[in-house]
Amino acid sequence: MKFSRLFFLAVCSVLTLSAAVLFAAEDGQRVRPVKEEGAGPRVFLCTDLESVAGVLDSVNWCLEDGRNYEEARHLLMGEINAAVAGFFDGGASEVTVLSGHGAQALIPEELDERATMQRGTYPGTWPWRLDCGYDALAFLGQHAKAGTPYGHLTHTGNMGVIDRRVNGLSIGEYGQLALCAKEFGIPTIFSSGDAAMCDEAEALTPGVVTVAVKFGLNPDDGCREMTMEEYRRAKTSVVTLAPEAARKKIYAGAKEAVERLTKAPESFTYADNLEPPYVLETEYRPAEHGGEIRKERKEHPTSFSALMRM
Predict the structure, then answer these.
(1) What are the start-end ranges of the E strands in the chain?
(2) Which of 55, 95, 214, 283 could hold 162 in an S-S bridge, CB 3.0 to 4.6 Å?
């Protein structure tokens, strides 16, 4: 009886492993069209919520229980569809929209039917399947990294991070994914968000087409003494475009980005000069005002994307 039970468990383990391997090998193939010869670029669009035009603060607009969260979601979808239309009109053959603010930020029934959505979590998150045959990376609603003066709702990953550096280079959420794209030879072609984010993108990825839809009004010296919740409320003042004006600018920028990718792909570059081994250093905000700052260090010998997964 004992032998039979062990045998049964062993068979189940083999079958489970086989199913996992089969599923991984077929990842996305059942719903993703095969790219035809001569077809336009496949664009991977990473979306966030903080730097969508009209979004004011984190507590009310960006958290799921916030009183303006549903309104923020509709504003996000308006900008996503403007970008999707621009990409396709510029010659893209496929656009996949990543729900970068959380799986529930997107409103599926409002998405342009030509696009696909990527939602939820899965093992080995980074680089978010960007390496699965995409030709370009783009961002929408992206905010500047933590500590950026005159950025709006600035943070890196969450409001509890003071700074994140790889081999001494300070990077935010934009840099984390853009440098994954670099590792796979994929250009970063477009980003919309606040003006400080656009400056950040242009410095790290020269040639990227940027669209500023808002600009923050608060300075920032790092605010190292602030707790997570204090910092969340410190960077809320903003001047923002009207949603329709923002969407028109986003459409034009997205269209330009794909057209230029087709005609002059060499115009999109990276300026980081990072080389392995990669060392990631993160500083976290104190648990109470003026308290101790926690530090964390991780290292990977060869891969930036693998470092992000650690």
Answers:
(1) 42-47, 94-99, 116-118, 136-142, 161-166, 169-170, 188-194, 209-216, 238-240, 278-284, 294-300
(2) 283
Q: Using an 8 Å Cβ cutoff, are 90 and 256 in contact?
A: yes
- Tell me the C-alpha distance between 124 and 128, whole Å: 8
Q: Which of these, 85, 232, 233, lies nearest to 160 by C-alpha position?
A: 232
Q: Which tokens sit at 182?
A: 């670099």
CATH (one of 3.40.50.10780, 3.40.50.1110, 3.20.20.140, 3.40.630.10) for 40-309: 3.40.50.10780
Q: Is 13 helix (H, G, I), strand (E, B) or coil?
A: helix
39 closest CA partner among 115, 182, 135, 137 = 135
